[in-house]
């Protein structure tokens, strides 16, 4: 009887230690952010502060969303477009679309950069096999599209929850 | 028996220990009193009351408590 | 005696709960009228030769009244706000229980949404789901539509039961009730004209910015599945499926998307019309024909689009002209009267 | 499967129907099956945990019992003591390990582990103390460990109280089922209408910008939240169990009516307090090393020596209670604070007596109310430590309590309607508590007046249905005590 109980207890300890490591909740990463004239803009965050800091846009348009509250707005600051979406009376950053090579991502990628540079900056894993690198960090997504080896589009997007 | 009564009266004078049979259940003695009682009994009677004996049955009345002390003194 | 008292109390409780539910559900009569569209079909089911299914690009861009007056085509629009392709499929499946139309017109814009979460924020998606599904009558189609449409949050919160008992979803509206909830507690008005939601406002189109290119233009597998299911269902029931892209300028309809639908239509010899390529023939003037700067047509634009499409339906799809049928003519003249009355009223309100 | 989910309500309804339609012999097996279905729903790996805990409890109890029946007393005592310490070491070691992983690597704790672990260890200790014979049938023991209503947040029952009921046979009793369901409804009212609503404000008030008076308001709001949340959850558990014909021990007896801290801890989380008293407080105070210590201490300072075992045992007990909640510094501080206040108020009793003899207000009603208010505020300030893992932050905020600061009530995520509901809800809870204090069970009062009972039940149902914070637009308020 003694031996069986000892074996049972030993087995039990191993199983529990295994059980204890069962589920690890991943900690939340913070997402990509785009900085322009020392103003940090994070997709998904409230747009108010960034819009004030950026000052008057070169031009602005707005569209009502399909059947809902408020307007989807787009601000053009000469070298990038900033689009926002409304949620409960406040505007949140939906998208930042870089328009020319005078601005670059935090990792130094700009319009015209080579595929090699992009691969070094974001890793080959996020290459979609044909013409774009799509990497996700926290609730944001950075899309870099290339045409015949050179970057033509850089896009920060908020993954809207 | 009267030594035990002495200890009990010292703990809480205005309880009539002769007739009282629900010291614990009626909440007259709380856990603090029980512990002080045990260490007093240990001093006076030299009897070590184990933790498992601290049950309402043994402590509800002075008679029951005295019975417990006698039993522990024999073995 | 105790049993009787208990039964009476239980009965009273049920009546109170049912009345409360009718009071608390949103009515969609005065604003967000899109929520009332789906429910209005059932009184007009039975004699429609053409059924439109799709999102706001169908119920804002086409007018069944014009189709009737110009070509004698009887039609109904089963559109709703941001209707996804799986909702369109199950609505079609339900409609075919009530009648067998000659032609089903499906607006292919919703192909770009592959999952409920991809349409935008989950709270907005949930609201659109409710607007489409709540007024649908109970059937296996509704059950499947709910299960296909539920967002991640709805699944976590076991929202399926709140579709069966809407009071569980709208319980907190008790502190936000308005006059509209009281006046429409028991009955509903008809807000649409055979599914067309009239808008008479004019807001000229401004030069909007292009939208950024996508990394991957291919439609999702889920979307293709439902399009294929739609095609097979129509084929089985002998109904002609016509794919269209309504002439809304925004959101953008990429040519890569257009090419994929073109190729699919050729493969299954379906008729596919991208009305964006025929704006001049339709005679659209973007300074007067849109009420929200290019997203949707107003009533004038819709009449032009319907006139153009009606001709195509009559010629290519041989949809019959039913104007010689007295009963239909009587019914439709009534509908036309209501249509023009609302049109006049909206125009007076405007100036 | 949380108590506040439609699937739980469905699960309970189906269980009740089957429970009263099958032959009574099989009822306990049905309960066992239901408990494991309920537990498996929360994740299969949790199931492994409870199975292993049950198995090891069963084995340990049998071994201790067999060791005690050995030939002579001396070796019997030694051998059974070894098995006891081995079993306690492993189980509490595992519990501590889970808590460490929860704190440092946010690995979720297996559901209800702190509760069923303490309950099974209580069983093993009772076997060791000889007050019960170990259960021979492992399945019956499994039911005792995993009986689902008490699994998630207690109450922690004793084997002698619960096992006979679990294994007994019950036929349908309308009154019992009705009482049970009414209590569940009352639990849902406190949890959904009050606790989850005020939780929004508590979360907002935790923000660093709220100091001064807002901190005091936070402590009161948190008191209401945790009262509604914990007593509500316990009412649902005890109510469901009552509907099944099994009475669980009370965990709360109107705690905010207590006039001193000792009374408070006899009215709040009673079963944990009872567990700690029987297995920690008594064991420490009468243990051999404590006796020697108190004897030597008594030689030097006779008066202090007598009180030493009591105070040492008190701090030991409150240290364990603190750890039970969590091993972060704030819970340890919370435990020590409670122990300290208990010891001080014990030490000051002669002073109180002198005070009361000079001012005979003791019997006056307003003095009682004053004491209750004093105790309510004191316990709030001790309890607030739970909320701030960073103890320094908590004390900094505590320091600013007297600086005047405006409390932005309407910016905390609650509207005027919400505050109206909260005030009415607390008033209802107060009236029910006063009724219970004066006349005993409110449900008993209603039992004779059918008409009134139907009205009250319908009213409560509508209140929960309409004003409950559940569903889309509300983030699912999990029970606070689910995390322990």
Written account of the structure:
The complex is a heterotetramer of chains A (161), B (75), C (351) and D (484). Chain A has 161 residues and is α+β, with helices and mostly antiparallel strands. Chain A has 3 helices and 9 strands. Chain A has helices at 2-20, 48-54, 115-122, and strands at 34-36, 39-41, 59-64, 71-76, 80-87, 90-98, 132-137, 140-147, 150-158. In chain A, the strands form 2 sheets. In chain A, strands 3-4-5-6-9-8-7 form a 7-stranded antiparallel sheet, with helices on one face. In chain A, strands 1-2 form a two-stranded antiparallel ribbon. Chain B has 4 helices and no strands. Chain B has one domain: Orthogonal Bundle (Non-ribosomal Peptide Synthetase Peptidyl Carrier Protein, Chain A), CATH 1.10.1200.10. In chain B, 56% of the residues lie in helices and 0% in strands. The mean pLDDT of chain C is 93. By secondary structure, chain C is an alpha/beta fold. Chain C contains 15 helices and 5 strands. In chain C, 48% of the residues lie in helices and 7% in strands. Chain C has a single domain, classed as SGNH hydrolase (Rossmann fold, 3-Layer(aba) Sandwich), CATH 3.40.50. Chain D has 2 domains: 21-171, no CATH class; 179-409, no CATH class. Chain D has 20 helices and no strands. Chain D has helices spanning 6-19, 27-40, 44-68, 73-105, 113-128, 138-146, 159-167, 174-205, 213-243, 261-267, 270-286, 288-300, 302-325, 329-347, 349-358, 365-383, 391-399, 416-439, 442-448, 450-467. The A-C interface holds A 61, 63-68, 74, 76, 81, 85, 87, 95, 97, 128, 130-132, 134, 143, 145, 152-153, 155, 160-161 and C 32, 34, 55-56, 81-82, 120-124, 127-128, 131, 206, 208-209, 212-216, 250, 292-295.
């Amino acid at each position: 009887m003694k031996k069986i109980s000892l074996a049972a207890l030993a087995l039990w300890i191993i199983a529990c230690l295994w059980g204890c490591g069962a589920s690890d909740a991943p900690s939340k990463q913070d997402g990509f952010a785009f900085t322009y004239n020392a103003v940090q803009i994070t997709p998904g965050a409230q747009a108010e502060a960034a819009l004030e800091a950026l000052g008057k846009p070169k031009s602005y348009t707005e569209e009502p969303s399909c059947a809902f509250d408020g307007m989807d707005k787009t601000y053009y600051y000469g070298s990038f477009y900033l689009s926002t979406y409304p949620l409960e009376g406040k505007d949140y950053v939906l998208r930042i679309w870089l328009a020319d090579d005078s601005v670059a991502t935090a990792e130094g990628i700009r319009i015209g950069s080579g595929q090699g540079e992009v691969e070094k900056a974001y890793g080959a894993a996020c290459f979609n096999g044909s013409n774009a690198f799509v990497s996700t960090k926290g609730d944001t997504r950075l899309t870099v599209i290339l045409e015949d080896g050179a970057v033509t589009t850089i896009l920060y997007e908020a993954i809207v929850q | 028996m009267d030594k035990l009564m002495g200890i009990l009266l010292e703990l809480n004078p205005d309880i009539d220990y002769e007739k009282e049979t629900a010291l614990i259940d009626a909440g007259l003695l709380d856990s603090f009193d029980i512990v002080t009682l045990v260490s007093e009994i240990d001093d006076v009677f030299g009897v070590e009351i184990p933790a498992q004996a601290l049950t309402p049955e043994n402590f509800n009345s002075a008679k029951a408590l005295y019975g417990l002390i006698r039993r522990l003194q024999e073995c | 005696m105790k049993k009787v008292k208990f039964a009476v109390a239980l009965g009273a409780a049920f009546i109170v709960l049912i009345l409360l539910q009718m009071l608390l559900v949103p009515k969609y009569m005065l604003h967000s009228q899109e929520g009332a569209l789906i429910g209005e079909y059932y009184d007009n089911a039975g004699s429609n030769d053409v059924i439109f299914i799709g999102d706001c690009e169908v119920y804002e861009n086409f007018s069944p009244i014009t189709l009737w007056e110009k070509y004698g085509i009887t039609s109904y629009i089963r559109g709703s706000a941001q209707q996804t392709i799986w909702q369109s499929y199950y609505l079609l499946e339900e409609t075919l229980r009530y009648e067998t139309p000659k032609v089903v017109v499906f607006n292919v814009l919703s192909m770009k949404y592959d999952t409920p979460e991809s349409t935008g924020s989950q709270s907005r998606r949930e609201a659109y789901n409710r607007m489409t599904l709540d007024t649908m009558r109970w059937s296996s189609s509704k059950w499947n539509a709910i299960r296909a449409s539920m967002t991640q949050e709805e699944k976590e919160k076991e929202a399926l039961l709140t579709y069966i008992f809407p009071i569980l979803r709208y319980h907190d509206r008790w502190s936000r009730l308005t006059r509209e909830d009281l006046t429409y507690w028991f009955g509903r008005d008809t807000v649409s004209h055979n599914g067309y939601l009239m808008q008479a406002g004019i807001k000229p189109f401004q030069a909007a910015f292009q939208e950024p290119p996508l990394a991957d233009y291919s439609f999702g597998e889920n979307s293709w599945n439902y399009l294929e299911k739609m095609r097979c269902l129509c084929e089985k029931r002998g109904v002609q499926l016509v794919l269209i892209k309504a002439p809304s300028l925004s959101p953008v309809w990429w040519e890569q998307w257009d090419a994929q639908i073109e190729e699919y239509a050729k493969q299954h010899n379906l008729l596919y019309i991208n009305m964006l390529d025929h704006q001049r023939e339709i005679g659209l003037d973007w300074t007067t024909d849109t009420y929200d700067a290019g997203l949707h047509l107003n009533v004038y634009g819709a009449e032009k689009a319907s006139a153009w499409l009606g001709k195509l339906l009559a010629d290519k799809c041989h949809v019959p002209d039913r104007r010689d049928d007295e009963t239909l003519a009587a019914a439709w003249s009534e509908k036309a009267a209501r249509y023009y009355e609302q049109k006049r009223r909206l125009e007076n309100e405007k100036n | 499967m949380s108590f506040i989910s439609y699937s739980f309500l469905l699960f309970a309804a189906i269980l009740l129907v089957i429970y009263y339609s099958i032959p009574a012999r099989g009822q306990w097996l049905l309960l066992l099956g239901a408990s494991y279905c309920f537990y498996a729903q929360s994740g299969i790996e949790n199931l492994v945990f409870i199975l292993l805990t049950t198995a090891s409890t069963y084995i340990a109890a049998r071994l201790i019992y067999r060791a005690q029946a050995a030939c002579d007393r001396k070796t019997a005592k030694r051998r059974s003591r070894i098995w006891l310490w081995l079993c306690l070491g492993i189980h509490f070691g595992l519990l501590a390990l889970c808590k460490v992983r929860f704190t440092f690597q946010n690995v979720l704790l297996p559901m209800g582990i702190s509760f069923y672990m303490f309950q099974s260890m209580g069983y093993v200790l009772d076997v060791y103390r000889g007050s019960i014979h170990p259960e021979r049938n492992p399945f019956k023991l499994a039911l005792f460990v995993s009986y689902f209503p008490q699994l998630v947040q207690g109450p922690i029952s004793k084997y002698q109280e619960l096992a006979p009921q679990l294994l007994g046979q019950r036929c349908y009793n309308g009154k019992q089922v009705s009482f049970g369901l009414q209590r569940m409804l009352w639990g849902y009212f406190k949890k959904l209408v009050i606790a989850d609503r005020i939780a929004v404000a508590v979360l907002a008030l935790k923000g660093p910008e709220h100091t001064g008076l807002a901190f005091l308001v936070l402590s009161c709001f948190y008191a209401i939240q945790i009262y509604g949340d914990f007593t509500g959850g316990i009412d649902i558990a005890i109510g469901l169990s009552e509907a099944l014909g099994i009475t669980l021990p009370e965990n709360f007896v109107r705690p905010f009516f207590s006039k001193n801290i000792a009374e408070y801890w006899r009215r709040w989380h009673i079963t944990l307090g009872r567990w700690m008293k029987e297995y920690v407080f008594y064991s420490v105070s009468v243990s051999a090393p404590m006796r020697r210590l108190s004897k030597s201490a008594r030689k030097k300072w006779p008066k202090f020596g007598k009180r030493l075992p009591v105070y040492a045992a008190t701090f030991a007990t409150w240290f364990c209670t603190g750890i039970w909640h969590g091993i972060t510094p704030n819970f340890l501080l919370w435990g020590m604070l409670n122990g300290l206040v208990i010891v001080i108020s014990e030490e000051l009793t002669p002073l109180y007596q002198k005070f009361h003899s000079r001012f005979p207000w003791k019997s006056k009603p307003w003095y009682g109310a004053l004491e209750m208010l004093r105790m309510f505020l004191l316990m709030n300030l001790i309890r607030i430590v739970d909320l701030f893992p960073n103890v320094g932050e908590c004390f900094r905020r505590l320091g600013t309590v007297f600086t005047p600061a405006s409390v932005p009530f309407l910016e905390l995520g609650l509207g005027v309607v919400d505050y109206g509901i909260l005030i009415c809800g607390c008033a209802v809870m107060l009236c029910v508590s006063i009724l219970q204090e004066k006349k005993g069970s409110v449900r008993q009062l209603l039992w004779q007046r059918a008409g009134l009972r139907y009205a009250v039940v319908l009213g409560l149902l509508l209140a929960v249905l309409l004003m409950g914070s559940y569903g889309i637009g509300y983030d699912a308020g999990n029970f606070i005590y689910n995390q322990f």
